[in-house]
Amino acid sequence: MNKIDETLSRSIPVPEYLMQAADCDLGDILFFDIETTGLSPKNSDIYLIGAAYFKEDLWHICQFFAENTCEQEDVLKAFSDLMGSYKALVSFNGDRFDIPFLRSKYNALGLEEPFGQKKSFDLYKFVHAYKIPLGLPDCKQKTVELLLGINREDKYSGGDLIRVYKEFLVSKDEDFKELLLLHNSDDVKGMLCLLPILNFGSFFSSFGNMPRVSVRTDEDIEEKDLGLPVRAVKVSANYYNSLDGSSKQEVIMKLALNTELPAPLSANKLGCFFKAEKKEAVLRVPLFEEELKYFYSNYKDYYYLPHEDMAIHKSLGEFVDKNFRQKAKAENCYTKKKGQYLIEWDLVFTPFFKRDYKDKNFFFELNDTMKKSRLAMSLYASHVIANVLDL
User: What's the CATH code, domain 2-203?
Assistant: First the structure.
């Protein structure tokens, strides 16, 4: 068995998100990746395991390579010895492939498996959870590397190299061996270079922690410490002509993000457009200037006046001629108001308005108080982005 050691001279930043998820310090985390001769541990072998760890302010890469199939047990023992003192493991698709494969091999050879109570953080699972907002076609490691602008030397997949390893077993060609080691080394180093993507996790999760509040006045807003993921820096209105020639309005917000993003992010939904890069973003939201309806929930306490097309409380309706009033129903128990409105998906801002009773969209009035409150617009921007990104 060959053991290959390498020390990386460059610094690799590690987001705090990883240590929080692993619940330990960086020096207690081991990154690893395995290479096998097939997908099934029943009829395949492990021929190479690569690992990375942070020690004495440097990153170290360690590889265990089986020169022949008889050395698989030596590779497993060496990896077990290395893993011993670490509290957490980081892999890419390790929970579904690497760890089950390793467990199967340790058990088959009668070796004690070294996993114990160690925590596992799978980068693949993380990426898959945010595949849609990240706009990824798939969750392969190389795809994620391209998102972050990482270009590796190795151009092969693990499947491609099965044939290369089999040819190496026969020829012992050092060029074949270098290809195998390079692929594994790039996978391990690639995991380290992928770590900035965890900043997306910090950013996205901050929307999940965002409080759901109903805000009626500026005083209500200013009293709350909302801990929002974005802050409105500048808010303005824009008038433009759509493709059909009609005049449209929108609110444009320049935003500051609470987390620096490792790659540009953009999305759109229901006419809302969001684009972010590093710690800055722009959000464009349609502004509707029209007459909308406010529906009263306790419709049994109201009369509907057909001629006025509005509902009034029974305490007032008793003074209206019976020929000009009727018992209100849920769908006609409303009053109408002209104004400027913004769309919302949850009842973050109240009171809310609708075009019709069955309308699934909610709107709130953009009044002067809202326009002057930067915090209110920050709350609204956070709400829109969460829905545009499907968080």
Answer: 3.30.420.10
